[in-house]
Amino acid sequence: MAEQDVVADREPISGAVPVAMGAGAVVRIPVPGTRGLAIELNPRGWKPKSGSTSSLFVQDLTGKRHLRLDFGFNKNSQVFEWHWNQKGTNAELGITNHTSVGQTEQVLGRVAKVYRVAGRALLVVGAATDLYSIVTSSQPLRRSVQVVSGWTAAAGGCKVVGAGGAYVGTAVAPGVGTAVGGFIGCTVGAFIGYVSAERAAGYLFDWAATAVFGKITGESALPAPAYGGEGGSFGGGGTFGGGGASGTW
Fold this sequence. Notes:
Elements: H1 2-9, H2 16-22, E1 29-30, E2 38-40, E3 54-59, E4 66-74, E5 79-87, H3 90-93, E6 99-100, H4 103-135, H5 140-172, H6 176-210, H7 218-221
Antiparallel strand pairs: 1-2, 2-3, 3-4, 4-5, 5-6
Helix pairs in contact: 2-4, 2-6, 4-5, 5-6
């Protein structure tokens, strides 16, 4: 029991929290039922030399089909404001081009701008934390396996749970709900994925390190056959015969 307490006290610091919080800044979060659209913070395809004025994108892999939250001149309202621009996504999300937005979307647009940078910074913090845990670990190989497993599962969890959040959010409020649900789901999924994989990898590593496998030899594998009764191999009392034929042949 004391040995278990010592091991528990020496549990390594983990990058799970910053990795989970930053995952949405780089992971492409799918939006189910939209023919390949996903939530991202950077544009795909063509963009102006001065850079995009949009901060949030729900787009396909080429960027040709997209819904983006933009701050700039709105052709419909004739003012500079936050608004949705879209191409080829109206059927799935129900938002027309140059749609003015409310206060919630305006906050989302500002937060997305900050999160694009802050999320990547959090990933750097997570990477530095995990690197430190490897360097200071008494079992660096074990800790390395845990870290690699955690990061891989965090990305997968972000995609899977984030997609669920985006689906629910789209049903509630297409556009803003899509993004908010996707990012919340991504964070939750990344954390659960990281922690679960980290622990599982540690258990499997310990099991593999302590497991002992016996070698099967020819003698132990095939026991000698017995064909006869008490005294002989084939017969009743002698070597081959039924009572005494045990002499030399």
